[in-house]
Design a protein that fits this description.
- The chain is mostly beta strands.
- It is built from 3 helices and 12 strands, in the order βββαβαββββαββββ.
- The strands form 3 sheets. It has a 6-stranded antiparallel barrel with strand order 1-2-11-10-7-12. A 4-stranded antiparallel β-sheet has the order 5-4-3-6. A two-stranded antiparallel ribbon has the order 8-9.
- A hairpin with a 4-residue loop joins strand 10 and strand 11.
- The chain is extended and about 70 Å long.
């Protein structure tokens, strides 16, 4: 399985030979570097840690800087770990880019959804509004939220108004429509979580091509 980190550039559309418009999302994927290899003998499981997006040294912590300088790597802003079955395929400092993926392959993509601020029940939980007739005082209010004497409190998890969006979201089985090796671009069919510029984690799925 292939793993890579990337940045969402935005959405566009591609026209097929039949004239059909296919919505796609463009991702600037990699290049990433293998910053750590974990094995079952030492760590209890097999995994690799990859780094992405070079930044100045004062943008990361001293601990991260020391971790990267041990293997003579650049100061990388993002570090993420992926479990793998065979660690012998990877080497410290190895570059991971879009060449590890194939057109027509399916991937799972994890990102942070767009934050929409504080929202009411109608928008956040799809509640039905109250009557709009004259005299009604319950248009968009939540109504009763709990019992009186027993238990005398509101149970945790009650669906109410609050912050909407800005959470980790995973979309599975998205097809890689096209790959641009020169520009390190993955063109994914469909929409992806987050706004342009957001960090995305891309992992190939087990679904057959």
């Amino acid at each position: 399985m292939s793993h890579i980190l990337g940045t969402k550039i935005g959405m566009t559309q591609i026209f097929t030979e039949n004239g059909n418009a296919i919505p796609v999302t463009v991702i600037k994927a990699g290049p990433c570097y293998v910053t750590q290899i974990k094995s079952t003998n030492v760590n209890g499981y097999n995994a690799i840690q990859i780094g992405y997006q070079e930044v100045s040294k004062n943008k990361i912590s001293k601990a991260e800087l020391g971790h990267l300088e041990k293997i003579n790597l650049l100061s990388l802003k993002y570090l993420k770990e992926y479990k793998v079955k065979d660690i012998e395929k990877f080497k410290l400092g190895e570059i991971i880019d879009v060449k590890y993926f194939k057109e027509g392959e399916f991937v799972d993509i994890v990102g942070k959804s767009i934050g929409k601020g504080f929202s009411g029940n109608q928008k956040r939980n799809h509640f039905r509004r109250g009557p709009m007739t004259h005299g009604s005082k319950n248009h968009r209010e939540p109504g009763s939220i709990g019992q009186s004497t027993t238990p005398g409190r509101v149970f945790p998890g009650k669906r109410m108004a609050g912050r909407l969006g800005g959470t980790q979201t995973t979309i599975s089985n998205l097809k890689i429509y096209k790959i641009d090796i020169d520009e390190n671009l993955l063109i994914i069919q469909g929409s992806l979580p987050g706004k342009p510029g957001n960090l995305l984690s891309i992992k190939s799925t087990k679904r057959a091509m």
